[in-house]
């Protein structure tokens, strides 16, 4: 089924805006009228996982959600200005039950990103993270059209 991805992201943004801590500025850049073949509830879960992490690992600063379409790919990014992830840990964060030492002091199971990766792969997409430790992290998701 075709998911109205742009309106789904708008809807999720409104929800997250309401629970955003006052120390975090949340903004979006969502291109209109983008559709994707897939499962809307799973894509919503994917967004929840990434935005929930962004809030959890950012004490204060900015979180941005973007959606854009190129010729043949749809790209979603979630960027935060939080604690970041070290180069050593970056390849491990999508593993089941992996949690960094700093993250261990917080709640969580270490399953979120493994689930996110499964959802992306079920839609033939790919997910990866770029990060600067102490500065912030971006999760990139690309779906083929
Ligand atoms: P949960 O399963 O409840 O989400 P979790 O956040 O520990 O728990 P994942 O979502 O799988 O589990 O994330 C794995 C690890 O990746 C986290 O423990 C944390 O170390 C790191 N991580 C994930 N997102 C971020 C982020 N936005 N900034 C910094 N580190 C992150």
From TrEMBL:
All copies of domain Histidine kinase, residue ranges: 1-145
Predominant localisation class: membrane
Keyword check for Membrane: yes
Keywords: ATP-binding, Kinase, Membrane, Nucleotide-binding, Phosphoprotein, Transferase, Transmembrane, Transmembrane helix, Two-component regulatory system
Record carries keyword Protease: no
Compartments in which it is found: Membrane
Molecular functions (GO terms): kinase activity
Listed name of the protein: histidine kinase
Species this protein is from: Lysinibacillus pakistanensis
Upper lineage: Bacteria, Bacillati, Bacillota, Bacilli, Bacillales
Residues of the full protein shown: 267 to 411 of 411
